[in-house]
Amino acid sequence: MAILVLFSTVSFTIEKHFCGDVLIDVAVFTEAQKCVMEAFEMEQAAITKMNCCKDDLELLKGQDVLKSQSYEDLHFDQSVFLSTFVYTYINLFEGLPEQIIPHKDYSPPNLVADIQVLDQVFII
Length: 124
Known about the structure:
Blueprint: H1 2-9, E1 12-19, E2 22-28, H2 38-48, E3 53-60, H3 76-92, H4 115-119
Antiparallel strand pairs: 1-2, 1-3
């Protein structure tokens, strides 16, 4: 849901560079690369007042206004349902009582030998 809201509110531009009728480059978020002939065309455009290279910008605008509601805007039955849902959800996760472990401070005795291996007695 958060990704949907993010993508619906993001605006970005698509820049296209044409040299004549030929599409040279398309760029999103950055400037489109110009064609090699553009420097020559700019010199010629200064003389002839015509330029064959052009840039096209498309702006894809995202949503600007997001609807937000407060608790006071809800109807009575909606507010009762919301408050009871929150109350029951919070009380759903009660902590477990602290259990007393009587032997937590005692270490087990050192094993001198593994008796099962010495006697060759195994539980199958």
